[in-house]
Amino acid sequence: MSGAREPWEAEEFIAALRALAPRYWHDHPFHLRLHEGSLSKHELRCWAANRWYYQRCLPQKDAAILANCPLPDIRRHWLDRIVYHDGSAPGEGGAENWLRMAEALGLTREEVRDERHVLPGVRFAVDAYLTFARTRPWVESVASGLTEMFSPGLMRRRLADMRTHYPWIAEDGFAYFTSRLTVIAEEGKSTVDIVVRHSNTREQQEAAVAALAFKCDVLQAILDAVDYHGRVAG
Ligand SMILES: O=C(O)c1cc(C(=O)O)c2c(n1)C(=O)C(=O)c1cc(C(=O)O)[nH]c1-2
């Protein structure tokens, strides 16, 4: 009676991916505190310094996807992500904009770059994401990035709420989010297309859903560590 299970239709598959939205980090207690304006400067700095570790590992994660992908079309397309974060020259790109956010919060570049504030839980979570991308089939790693499907609304709200509740943050500090918002909607859509096109069996489709669930856990774990630290350190 056993036999291969039918793959989902594209719409069912996309619905299974979207059904993970409640596991996204939009309503993590730390994000709620960030949005309502109740974080101290110390907590905001801790958030920025720790998220730096995530930001700086993203190009390595994307490079791992490139390294594992045998398809030139995908590689050509994916390469843009590395350039987006690293910039095409020093002083440009997403990582640079994140450093500007950290500076606007009162950190020095040096203390962000040397990772002295990175908490063990954040390091473990981000390293797990990197290891996932290095060791799993490339399409699963692409699927793990689909958390971005859930992020534009959150990012828009974050920008508005931070401008309102933390008016001392200079506008230059928000460059990361303003520039990210212009690319993210398009990126999310083309990433779904890639995952749908290249997950052909039911097993591959389920592995893609599991990859996205894993990534939601990575993001939750990052904020758990930052939130806990803020609460115990005051
Ligand atoms: O601010 C956010 O809430 C948020 C979330 C995510 C995400 O959902 O993984 C990313 C980003 N920002 C982001 O800026 C970014 O460059 C990014 C890349 C990726 C990824 O997994 O490849 N996620 C995210």
Automatic annotation (TrEMBL):
Keywords: Oxidoreductase, PQQ biosynthesis. The keyword Oxidoreductase applies. Residues 16-224 form the Thiaminase-2/PQQC domain. Its EC number is 1.3.3.11. It comes from the Bacteria. Pathway: Cofactor biosynthesis; thiamine diphosphate biosynthesis; Cofactor biosynthesis; pyrroloquinoline quinone biosynthesis. It catalyses: 6-(2-amino-2-carboxyethyl)-7,8-dioxo-1,2,3,4,7,8-hexahydroquinoline-2,4-dicarboxylate + 3 O2 = pyrroloquinoline quinone + 2 H2O2 + 2 H2O + H(+). GO terms for molecular function: pyrroloquinoline-quinone synthase activity. GO terms for biological process: pyrroloquinoline quinone biosynthetic process. It holds the Pfam family TENA_THI-4. InterPro entries: Haem_Oase-like_multi-hlx, PqqC, PqqC-like, Thiaminase-2/PQQC. Ring cyclization and eight-electron oxidation of 3a-(2-amino-2-carboxyethyl)-4,5-dioxo-4,5,6,7,8,9-hexahydroquinoline-7,9-dicarboxylic-acid to PQQ. NCBIfam families: PQQ_syn_pqqC. Belongs to the PqqC family. PANTHER family: 4-AMINOBENZOATE SYNTHASE, PQQC-LIKE PROTEIN. This is Pyrroloquinoline-quinone synthase. The gene is pqqC.
